[in-house]
Design goal:
The chain has 6 helices and 14 strands. By secondary structure, it is an alpha/beta fold. The chain folds into 2 domains: 149 residues, no CATH class; 79 residues, Rossmann fold (3-Layer(aba) Sandwich). Helix 1 crosses helix 6. Bound molecules: cytidine-5'-monophosphate. The site of cytidine-5'-monophosphate has 14 residues, from helix 4 and strand 11. Cytidine-5'-monophosphate binds next to helix 4 and strand 11.
Length: 287
């Protein structure tokens, strides 16, 4: 049995790519699979945590058992979801987004709910990961979310491969190929990890970094710049680990607050790496 180092802890994890709309049928994204974040969600549950997993883009992985999953597409929506989950202000199963992007939420369940907030738009996914779920099961899930309302997170783990840029404005209609050349105007996306971390000093915040050189120097730079407690880095110049691979190898660095030496996790499955990371986090918060 796994030591319950995260018993009673509430963990919010971001995973997968983000999808940034160009027009109603096209988008910018990346090849992130979401495997590391999903493996971490499983490992944190095994260590006794209560886990909310925010999956970006179109992650095609089954929802781990006993994990609350919220599907979003863009970085902006992921930030809103993360803020609400970390603050415990996500009401029932649905998150509040400012804009309606209905055509992109093709994988939501499309259940309608009788809300008092009738002016607002509700998106997101209950995370049951099962499109055939009956309304009865769905309602049970709603209640469990009600019970969890206003419970703040203890730990935030950002594994998502957030698009650095998004289109300045998504075209409302499909763009026609009438021109020989076209230019997309891009603007920077918010840094979800830094935004959450800098706004929540009590939260234990874990970042990930993919580097091709000077892993330690860049990782320590991000620890400080984003005010993280811990950062896990992999060397993406190695073809055998990271991204879509089932394997990973990592170096873990801690904020100076913890007086802990760096840890090297040898190449193994993402599931094993996730178990090791969950116990490293458990030890660090127990310090
Ligand atoms: O700065 P860099 O993209 O290398 O940082 C990687 C870390 O920051 C990862 O933990 C990633 O999930 C997070 N991140 C984020 N929002 C962004 C960019 C990165 O949460 N816009």
């Amino acid at each position: 049995t796994t030591p319950q180092l995260l018993a009673g802890k509430r963990v919010v994890i971001t995973a997968g790519p983000t999808v940034e709309a160009i027009d109603p049928v096209r988008y910018l994204s990346n090849h992130s699979s979401g495997k590391m974040g999903f493996a971490l969600a499983r490992a944190c549950v095994a260590a006794g945590a209560d886990v909310v997993l925010i999956a970006g883009g179109k992650v095609a992985l089954p929802t781990p058992l006993n994990v609350t999953r919220i599907d979003v597409l863009s970085a902006e929506d992921m930030l809103i979801a993360a803020q609400q989950c970390v603050d415990g202000t996500h009401s029932e199963l649905q998150l509040v987004f400012e804009d309606e992007h209905d055509h992109f939420h093709d994988h939501t369940h499309g259940h309608s709910h009788n809300h008092s907030h009738s002016e607002e738009h509700y998106h997101g996914d209950c995370g049951c990961g099962d499109d055939d779920v009956s309304d009865h099961d769905h309602n049970d899930l709603l209640h469990s979310h009600d019970d969890n309302q206003f419970v703040k997170a203890d730990i935030f783990i950002a594994t998502a491969a957030v698009a650095d840029y998004r289109t300045e404005e998504a075209a409302p209609q499909k763009i026609k190929k009438t021109q020989d050349a076209m230019t997309l105007s891009l603007v920077k996306n918010p840094d979800i990890l830094a935004t959450i971390s800098l706004a929540h000093s009590e939260l234990f915040v874990v970042g990930f970094a993919a580097e091709t050189q000077d892993v330690e120097r860049y990782a320590r730079g991000k620890l400080v710049a984003k005010d993280l407690d811990m950062i896990a880095c992999n060397d993406v110049s190695r073809a055998d680990i990271g991204f879509a691979s089932d394997d990973n190898a990592m170096q873990v660095f801690f904020s100076e607050r913890y007086e802990r030496d760096a840890v090297t996790l040898e190449k193994t499955s993402k599931d094993k790496i996730a178990e090791q990371l969950a116990s490293i986090i458990g030890q660090a918060i127990g310090q």
